[in-house]
Specification:
single chain, Peptidase M50B-like, globular, 5% strand, 76% helix, mainly alpha, 10 helices
Length: 238
């Protein structure tokens, strides 16, 4: 019982507001991790994890049976579930992937505003542990283990300042990174290289053109970036 109480205290600990320069630095690093090509080849794996996790969460919310998840070294992935092949649940599940990182980033930005930065890290640890149960390939196991170990190391061994900085970096990275895969998707679609993309699956499900779904995904990710970024950076400027 004491162990559970201690764990809850760790997870719900109130964090001090970081110095403005820390927030500014994490914002710069987040942008570099998204825009620098070599860094993006690595960090995009994290976006893929969240993308597939979003599919799984929405599938579970609509009563579908989760079968597994695969993550590949080319940063693609697939979330597998069974249930009705059509309907609003399938549409929302399919749409959730590309907007998932942005919505997660927006939620994390809200949590940061409550001064519970370490909770952002714990949410990541719990989510990755759940995905480990569902992973069905070795690269996926490797990716989830590495990212999960880094997060767990931070929440268990990191100092409070390190945890706060990491929570801000992860949140800002998710917000900044989310629009890029949407733009990459449309470039692939324009070349005819992604006939089974989420947008094209949505087009078949709804008879609404795929480009409309791409545009809607971009609108959501940019809106989350603007709002979440404002929530985080406003105190720095004010």
């Amino acid at each position: 019982m004491n162990g559970l109480h201690s764990l809850w205290e760790r997870m719900s600990a109130v964090s001090p507001a970081p110095a403005p320069w820390i927030v500014q630095l994490t914002a710069v690093v987040a942008v570099i991790l998204v825009l620098e090509p070599h860094a993006w080849r690595i960090t995009r794996n994290v976006v893929t994890i969240v993308h597939e996790g979003a599919h799984l969460v929405v599938a579970l919310l609509f009563g579908r049976t989760l079968k597994g998840v695969r993550l590949h070294s080319d940063t693609s992935g697939v979330a597998i579930s069974s249930g009705k092949p059509t309907g609003i649940g399938v549409v929302l599940m399919t749409f959730a992937g590309y907007v998932g990182p942005a919505v997660l980033g927006l939620g994390a930005a809200w949590v940061l505003g409550t001064q519970h930065a370490v909770a952002v890290l714990w949410i990541g640890v719990v989510a990755l542990a759940a995905m480990l149960i569902l992973v069905r390939n070795l690269y996926g196991l490797f990716s989830l283990t590495v990212v999960g170990a880094l997060l767990f190391g931070l929440v268990w061994f990191g100092t409070q300042d390190q945890q706060v900085a990491a929570a801000y970096l992860i949140t800002l990275f998710m917000l900044v990174a989310a629009p890029r895969p949407v733009l990459e998707l449309q470039r692939q679609r324009a070349r005819g290289a992604a006939p089974e993309s989420d947008a094209d699956q949505l087009a078949r499900l709804t008879h609404v053109p795929g480009i409309v779904w791409v545009g809607l995904s971009l609108l959501v990710t940019l809106s989350c970036l603007a709002l979440g970024g404002w929530w985080i950076l406003r105190p720095v400027g004010g």
